[in-house]
Amino acid sequence: MAIKLVAGVCPNYGTVLDFGAGPGLFLHMLGKARPDIALVGCDPYMEPTYPELKYAESIESVAAQSVDVLTAFEVCEHLYEDELDALLEDTSRILKPNGAFVISVPIMCGLAIVPKVSNWMIRSRSLKSEYTPAEVLRAMVGKPVSRPKNPRTTHKGFDFRELREIVRVRFHIEAVHMSPVPNMPWWLSSQYFMICRPKT
Prior knowledge:
- The protein is α/β, with parallel strands linked by helices and 200 residues long.
- Helices cover 30% and strands 24% of the residues.
- Helix 1 (2-9) crosses helix 2.
- The chain starts with a helix and ends with a strand.
- It comes from Streptomyces regalis.
């Protein structure tokens, strides 16, 4: 879905910058689908694995109005409040006036919380979970669950609805998509995508 969405909003011979690119798998796959696109990664912790990729030294070093599409996939839920604010400010600066900001985040409320918590317990081979049974029930019905102070290694308590309202202050939200089934309601979905445009 990420490749389809970004390929669909990026103009011919445009530039895509992936914030939190990791080793660059998404950009590598996007390049196969759209070989005309200039691919730029940005990740303070990792180097590119694929030789065709160029990585920016930092998002602050990217020139103003030089990017057609900026992506942040499964990143925003791990940012502190000031880091998220800085990302949105930098995105506003480096996007072209008709550019797109494409975000994906996990849905940690609704019915998806049960398989997600269960999967975490299976993978960690533990009967313990970050969520108490009461917190699982709260999340299932869409009520907030407290977040740990350090968001780096956890999704606990993340609420995509709060992020959506923060993003809406600076950007127009042009479209939203759910995953894995695009037309399902959010409370039956696992992942939330937003296509955003700069406010003029």
